[in-house]
Design a protein that fits this description.
The complex is a heterodimer of chains A (59) and B (221).
Chain A (H helix, E strand, L loop, with lengths): L2 H30 L5 H21 L1
Chain B lengths: L2 H41 L4 H22 L4 H16 L1 H8 L4 H26 L7 H21 L2 H27 L6 H26 L4
Helix pairs in contact in B: 1-3, 1-4, 1-8, 2-3, 3-8, 4-5, 5-7, 5-8, 6-7, 7-8
Classes of the chains: A mainly alpha (59), B mainly alpha (221).
Chain lengths: 59, 221
């Protein structure tokens, strides 16, 4: 285990600790949302997946 | 509808349009600046350790300095600091791919692909004006899970897990582009500096992870 891996793991753990309260807040805020158009969100994300697969096949 | 409410609705629309315009102008400039910094980093053969230090520096600026300066002109300097450091940190990664026979083609494809994904998703969120706020909790929880697995994989070193993480990060960042753009269009985020950094980080992550997947698909990674 080299120092770079330890430093990288430390940076990621710092990011997790920093984002934890924000994630909790966002989860609470999302739960209050009444308008939930999952279909409207999933269609463009599926299009992105298809595009990435296309790029992977093209290279 | 009264004259007052029509006037305030017009003002809100004008403010949103100004926010969108300022965000995309600043995003374009920071992307160019970031690309220049990445080119400089490749040219001087930045060591991987320095790349990591630059990335951590960019993260620290984004987490601790930007929220305090986003409402002042100093915020603009901080944005350039963040995007410059993150762009500079790409040097060793780009050098690694450039050393491959089709490396420049892979980088160009990842760059173009990132641009196309961003334009497509932003265009979708801007034209439909849908509310994607319900995705916030899911996206943040998903991102935290990815970070935990990334930490584990630093020690486990499983290539298949690394590829799966790249695919998940691209999906999450696509969701974040929808979420952020929707917040901007609906006037829920009013600071173009914060919005620019959010969108930049989404694009940065898509580029890095798309390059990883393309490298694997071409058999060089």
């Amino acid at each position: 285990m080299d120092w770079m891996s330890i430093l990288m793991a430390g940076a990621l753990i710092m990011l997790i600790i920093f984002l934890w309260p924000r994630a909790k807040m966002m989860l609470e805020m999302s739960a209050q949302e009444t308008e939930r158009d999952w279909k409207g969100a999933i269609i463009p994300i599926v299009a992105v997946i298809a595009f990435v697969v296309f790029l992977m096949m093209a290279v | 509808m009264s004259t007052y409410s029509v006037q305030s609705a017009n003002e809100a629309t004008l403010a949103t349009n100004k926010l969108i315009k300022n965000t995309y102008i600043l995003l374009s400039v920071t992307l160019i600046f970031s690309a220049i910094m990445a080119a400089v980093s490749v040219a001087i053969q930045l060591p991987p350790m320095m790349s990591l230090v630059c990335m951590i520096g960019g993260m620290v600026l984004a987490m601790f300095v930007l929220p305090r300066t986003a409402n002042s002109s100093t915020g603009l300097l901080v944005v350039f600091g963040i995007t410059g450091l993150l762009g500079f940190s790409l040097g060793p990664l780009l050098s690694y791919y450039l050393a491959m026979p089709n490396g420049s083609e892979l980088i160009a494809t990842a760059f173009g692909g990132t641009g196309a994904i961003f334009l497509g998703l932003s265009g979708y969120a801007l034209t439909t004006r849908k509310n994607f706020n319900f995705m916030g909790g899911f996206l943040f929880a998903g991102f935290l899970m990815v970070l935990v697995v990334m930490v584990a994989n630093i020690f486990l070193q499983i290539p298949a897990l690394s590829l799966a993480l790249s695919a998940v990060v691209i999906m999450l960042m696509a969701g974040f582009i929808l979420f952020d753009t929707s917040r901007m269009v609906r006037g829920e985020e009013t600071n173009y500096i914060m919005m620019t950094v959010s969108l930049y980080i989404n694009m940065f992550n898509i580029f890095v992870h798309l390059l990883h997947l393309l490298g694997f698909a071409s058999g060089d990674d």
